Amino acid sequence: MKMLTTESCPGWYCGRQILDSGELSECGSCPRAYRRNDSYICVPCTDSPTFYDWLYLGFMVVFLLILHWFFIDLVSMRRRSLTDWYTLLHNPDPNYEETIHCTQEAVYPLYSIIFLFYTMNLLCMFCFRTWVCRKVMPGPGKMSIYAAMYYLPILAVSHALIGGLLYYAFPYLIVVMSVISCAVHFAFSINQTVFSLIMTSLTSPRNIIILMGHWCLHFYGIISITEFTDPLFHSLLILLVPLPTLFYIFTARFTNPKKFDKS
């Protein structure tokens, strides 16, 4: 094998590249991801980033987020009644003549910021989620995108029409939905014995994640209802989070249709 003899290059970082002909180029900058070696030849970088290097990259990401913390203040207008959500229906017409259009967002930003979130969600879904689903899970991921194309417009229309009602009712909806969904989840179990329900809930990773999701929803609903105005008492209500799960597990055996007298 022919050995390449090189002359030194000035400076600390100037090197020579190996051309297709096997000759060396003049001294200059090395290509990206290359650096000169002790023989003044540009060689590719093959080392792995050290732990400190990864910490530096993490610092740069976190530092950018910290800079945005100076601009996270959100101002709002406190609502006074349900009509604040529907100013379109309350344009005055003095003396039943010309209507004065005073429609505005009286509950700023609770109305517009939801539409902004839905729009950003839709854009991210089309720009990034489609690519991720195609690479990671082409089957189930495709169906989730199709579902989102239906429920995002439905949610937007629902917010436009009944946003005010949802504002006052969402804490109770969360609690009711979490209880019902928890019961539905356990109802799909073939074996409805206490031992089986407990074991499947504690040993199956899928069931653990679903159960934790229900508990988080129930916890969120309790916080939304109480707003922690009485921290000591309302903290004790957190103990009620597992109650729907325990109630179903220990009472499911009493609902077995085979135990009822057909006569």
UniProtKB/TrEMBL annotation:
<protein>
    <recommendedName>
        <fullName>JNK1/MAPK8-associated membrane protein</fullName>
    </recommendedName>
</protein>
<feature type="transmembrane region" description="Helical">
    <location>
        <begin position="168"/>
        <end position="188"/>
    </location>
</feature>
<keyword id="KW-0812">Transmembrane</keyword>
<dbReference type="InterPro" id="IPR008485">
    <property type="entry name" value="JAMP"/>
</dbReference>
<feature type="transmembrane region" description="Helical">
    <location>
        <begin position="54"/>
        <end position="72"/>
    </location>
</feature>
<feature type="transmembrane region" description="Helical">
    <location>
        <begin position="208"/>
        <end position="226"/>
    </location>
</feature>
<keyword id="KW-0472">Membrane</keyword>
<keyword id="KW-1133">Transmembrane helix</keyword>
<feature type="transmembrane region" description="Helical">
    <location>
        <begin position="232"/>
        <end position="250"/>
    </location>
</feature>
<feature type="transmembrane region" description="Helical">
    <location>
        <begin position="110"/>
        <end position="132"/>
    </location>
</feature>
<dbReference type="Pfam" id="PF05571">
    <property type="entry name" value="JAMP"/>
</dbReference>
<feature type="transmembrane region" description="Helical">
    <location>
        <begin position="144"/>
        <end position="162"/>
    </location>
</feature>
